[in-house]
Design the sequence.
């Protein structure tokens, strides 16, 4: 699903988004290896849930309070933005967005593991209720994304990255202009970290 003209790499702001535990950190790491530097501050360090790191930039979370000045430093880079915050991106910029998809059962299983590690109750909300909430939210967000004239996007499957990585990597490469280091992207995929299989 490609929309509108490809942007100049030097002016491109690459947004990586998706539901929790959908592979956004992996995509950020792959883009970093491919030659697109990430906006990150290392405040949230790697842990058992994301051994390779989260690739997050804390100021993204402050967008609802009006902290959007940092976006002027984002052209030429990638930044991870959770789906709930996408609507706060300033519309005076253009974005190339990679939306990560993953089998819902795997997202829920991964989320539960993370809650257990944090000492939280993984059964506070039932799987069905959480799946319904996630699905409704994602549908609403994507409906909004499709209406934005300043956003081009593709959807990339985390499951396919693990199963048929070359095809998904080439899809990202073509979306972002065709000059990425695809071999470096491929080298960042570690099947050992695919722990919540459907």
Sequence:
């Amino acid at each position: 699903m490609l929309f509108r003209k490809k942007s100049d790499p030097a002016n491109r702001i690459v947004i990586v988004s998706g539901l929790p535990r959908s592979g956004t950190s992996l995509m950020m790491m792959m883009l970093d290896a491919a030659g697109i530097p990430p906006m990150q501050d290392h405040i949230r360090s790697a842990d058992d849930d994301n051994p390779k790191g989260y690739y997050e930039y804390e100021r993204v979370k402050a967008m609802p309070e009006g902290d959007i000045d940092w976006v002027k430093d984002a052209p030429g880079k990638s930044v991870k933005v959770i789906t709930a915050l996408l609507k706060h991106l300033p519309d005076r910029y253009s974005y190339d967005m990679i939306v990560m998809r993953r089998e819902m059962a795997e997202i829920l299983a991964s989320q539960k593991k993370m809650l257990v590690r944090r000492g939280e109750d993984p059964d506070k909300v039932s799987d069905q209720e959480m799946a319904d909430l996630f699905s409704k939210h994602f549908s609403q967000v994507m409906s909004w994304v499709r209406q934005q004239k300043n956003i081009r996007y593709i959807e990339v499957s985390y499951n396919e990255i693990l199963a048929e990585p070359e095809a998904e990597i080439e899809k990202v490469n073509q979306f972002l202009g065709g000059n990425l280091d695809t071999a470096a992207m491929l080298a960042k995929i570690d099947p050992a970290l695919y722990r919540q299989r459907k």
